[in-house]
Amino acid sequence: MAEKRVDQATGTETVGHEWDGIEELDTPMPRWWLWTLYATIVWGVVYTIAYPAWPMLSDATSGMLGWSSRGQLQQELDAQAQRRAPITQALANTPIEQVSANPQLMQAAVEGGRAAFKVHCVQCHGSGAAGSKGYPNLNDDEWLWGGDLKTIEYTIAHGIRNPDHEATRFSQMPAFGRDGILQAAQIADVTAYVRTLSGAQKPDAAARRGGQLFAENCAVCHGAEGKGDRTVGAPDLTDAIWLYGGDPASITATIANSRYGVMPRWNEKLDPATIRMLAAYVHSLGGGEAMPVDQTAQAAVPADGAKADVHP
Amino acid sequence: MSIPEEPRPALYEKRKAVYPKAVDGPFRRFKWAVMVVALAIYYITPWLRWDRGAYAPDQAVLVDLANRRFYMFAIEIWPHEFYYVAGLLVMAGIGLFLVTSAVGRAWCGYACPQTVWTDLYQHVERFIDGDRNAQVRLAKAPWGPAKIARRLAKWSVWLLIAVATGGAWIFYFADAPTLARDFLAGDAAPVAYATVGVLTLTTFVLGGFMREQVCIYMCPWPRIQTAMLDEKSLIVTYKDWRGEPRSRGIKKADDTHLPTGDCIDCLQCVAVCPTGIDIREGPQIGCITCALCIDACDKVMAQIDRPRGLIDYCTIEDAEREKKGAAPRPLLKTLLRPRTIIYFVVWAGIGIAMLFMLGARDRIGISALQDRNPVYVRLADGTIRNNYTIKIRNMEARPRTVEIGLAGLPGAVLWSEGGTRETARQTVRVAADADSVAKVRIFVAAGTEGEQRTPIHFTVRALDADGGTSSDDAQFERPEATP
Question: Was A120 annotated as part of a binding site?
């Protein structure tokens, strides 16, 4: 280490280090700078007394101000809930057909539904509501039970094929093969016919035989033209959407063993406002249908209570 | 070399009190003018009005953080145009390079807020306490009623200025008349009071007490400027070749008949210096080149019948020339040299480019974002639907009707939320609110035939007479061809 020396130009002593001829002057700090250092020390001590800081054996000091990050979070959540209260209140009191008339309320409902969907619905319907085999895609324009706001709300509230619930949506397709109603060859014929309905294959002899069987066994629910019936949740067989697959093997399996898709009812778990928001969100995904005219007229009468306004 | 007798220098230095003496002269008057203009700009600007119609604020300069808009007279900046603000900052930087390389630390000496407010505070100080000598006497006097009264008076006026300074700042961020009413009524946002409080405190402390300490110890700018000065930059120079050797008074010089310089060691240059330095020791970090010592010295030179300019703006290069007896270069030649010209050209170039871009920029914009979950939806009739979130930026201060169209996807139809497939057409009309972003969900349906991933373009066209279009790229996706 080089000797400390006094720099000629400034009259200041150097710190004594020297790097390739470069030296550092030992310029004194201003006194007030020292005070700011003491002030930060005082601040630090006061801070650790006022706020949670010092680690103890199993915990930490809680601070004299009683602040905690969880407490702050709760405060913020409460503030948000309070801010949202009028909208939640309005949604709880407004029948869904009147919600759609108020764009602001509708938008709030859609956004609220988007959040609730992520919690309660994605397990089956997927995070984008695109569904999968056996779980309907809610983005498309095909609805088993109907796609207007009110119908969707009812489906969410009461579920589908819920045991022990009177108001649930219910229907049961016979297991034509398993129950011995149709023979394997007949099922193959019906499969061929069903595939011609949507244009998946050309009519042939098997399809013609199947057409006869369809009229006798299937048309009662799916309609003479295979267009389905929403009152019993019978799917339209003429379109491009297949919940359980539209290939011959899948259709054969469906006819032989039937399908029994179950959706839980949500009116026992969620409040009416949340169900309404979910309905609004599902309706907004792109396939939502307009309310039938007579239902809209009926809806003008304010409903009393949360459940009374839900009709099939 | 060792100096053993020298006492060990202290780790910390006691502050040397500075009581700058009042002075008059051309530079002092110029400094007054700069101060008046700078303070006027600062206090008056938020109160200027600028009519932008019914849909935009009428404040000429407004940084509307809540709504993310920046208004400056006829210019309105949206967040996505923030590069204009960055451009302004670049211009400010290069402007400082230009000023510094030409006239040294002129920013420090005249325009820096620290200098302007310190100057204002010192003026108040002289008004209440008297000039330098009276201030020194008062500082040494024991605390008594008179001293307390004077201190209270001074600090009160300082505090008033500080509150006004902090108060003016917040008016740049909200409608000034409304905020002023709310602020006085106690209804303004807490952040407004906090901002005023913090700026009041900093103004009071930095202008009243810290003063030259800010320049010498706290500010990084003097260090940076030191690197930007060169031997052709104007700096305040004590012409030692003319002043030395100093005489203690003109009479003494005459009596001794020894060769003496022009400096009579009257210390006026030190007395007036706001940072308390002795300029005769040469260029130093404490010199903010406010030129008050030039005024002070010129006055003394006039009294002792010597030419002015013993302390003067002078480049290091000219100092060398003058030492050798040569004439200094003309001022214009000093100022106009490649370095300053290049700085100026770059500075002006950025400014002109920004003005040109501001004049030519579109006031309508579109951005399209495809839904990624699900990427596509198969519809009942077998066609494929993709969903998009379209944002229309209507940057005009009036509502407009715009039409969203689609190119690159033959046979496609589009509809917006609320519409239906049945009513879908080739375009969608959207009412875009004034000066805001309209967000629409757009559904696009097209047949299964085509590339799995088709590039498409959304276009937006304003339907009023002024027109204007914009477009954004997106893609339409289909499922893999089914076997």
Answer: no
